[in-house]
Design brief:
With about 300 residues, the protein is α/β, with parallel strands linked by helices. Helices cover about 45% and strands about 10% of the residues. Helix 8 (about 215-225) links the parallel strand 6 (about 205-210) and strand 7. Helix 3 packs parallel to helix 4 and helix 3 packs parallel to helix 9 (about 245-260).
Length: about 300
């Protein structure tokens, strides 16, 4: 029996590179010509080079993210919800009223900028913007089935990938409210939940609103926590509430901590809808109590 070959001299990293260099080439296909082999090798080098370039760009983005200044002037709330719920649905009106109340308290509103409950949240933000001149943000995604950004946005950021969009949600927002939604809404909420779990996000409430999310909590506790796949305290990292008013109270407390920690003072509230703010919306001048979902604003 022969002894195992000794590793090449040098540090462990050099040894690993040396081993990679000595790996045998994949077997040639019987019908492969020298031109085909050349093309395959060139394609493999191009793919590896692209992977290295993408990883380098990720590293640069992470470096910039760690050194970018944190927003300490404006408190922003991300509202995650379905794009499929229409204006005549009661959930639409509840989400619109939720965003309006948060806006009246001085919170900017951040959504995906699309239809459904995203439009409801941006519409509500627009209705309450006159008091503190709060703003409505839309982080849109370029998809064939997605519609144009909704008409209630002050600022739009277009994304071609979901992970860059999720990253901007995290960077912009200081609280996250999850209303009725599907797979996309769940993806956004789970991203925030994981970062809370590993302590990369702190003092940023994630709030699940409504009956539909109780099933998610039951599944986490029964199948993940019970089997040791998650820690017993993980379900308590987020807040589970039945009504939007409970969500407003949690966000209001987070807003108070934000203002105190950063020594920010909200300007005196305006007595009525500000004309400049109304002009900025490019919409009719509506009374303060105009109902959410009013077709005259769409």
């Amino acid at each position: 029996m022969t002894d195992d070959p000794k590793p090449p001299p040098g540090p462990p990293a050099e040894q690993r590179r040396a081993r990679r260099r000595t790996l045998p080439e994949p077997p040639q296909r019987p019908e492969e010509t020298w031109v085909g082999r050349l093309r395959r090798r060139v394609r493999r080098k191009v793919v590896r080079g692209a992977d290295r370039a993408i990883n380098a760009l990720y590293a640069i983005a992470a470096w910039l993210d760690r050194r970018a200044p944190v927003e300490r002037r404006y408190f922003r709330v991300a509202i995650f919800g379905s794009s499929r719920i229409r204006r005549d649905d009661e959930t639409y009106r509840r989400v619109c009223a939720l965003a309006r109340e948060l806006s009246l308290k001085g919170c900017d509103i951040v959504t995906g900028g699309g239809p459904g409950l995203m439009t409801a949240a941006n519409e509500g933000a627009r209705l309450g913007a006159y008091r503190y001149h709060t703003r409505s943000f839309g982080l849109t995604i370029l998809l064939p089935m997605e519609e144009q950004p909704n008409p209630f946005l002050d600022e739009v950021a277009e994304h071609s990938t979901f992970f860059s969009r999720l990253h901007q949600f995290l960077r912009l927002s200081h609280a996250y409210v999850v209303v009725d939604g599907g797979i996309g809404t769940t993806l956004e909420a789970m991203m925030v939940w994981q970062l809370l779990q590993v302590r990369l996000l702190r003092d940023r409430p994630l709030i699940f609103v409504g009956e539909m999310w109780k099933g998610l909590r039951a599944w986490v506790e029964a199948d993940l926590v019970a089997r040791g796949l998650a820690s017993p305290g993980d379900p308590e990292l987020v807040r589970w509430v039945d009504t939007t008013q409970e969500a407003v109270e949690i966000v209001d407390a987070a807003l108070a901590r934000f203002l105190e920690r950063n020594e920010v003072m909200l300007p005196p509230p305006a007595d009525g809808p500000d004309k400049a703010a109304v002009l900025r919306t490019n919409l009719p001048d509506l009374p303060e109590e105009a109902p959410c979902g009013d077709e005259t604003r769409s």
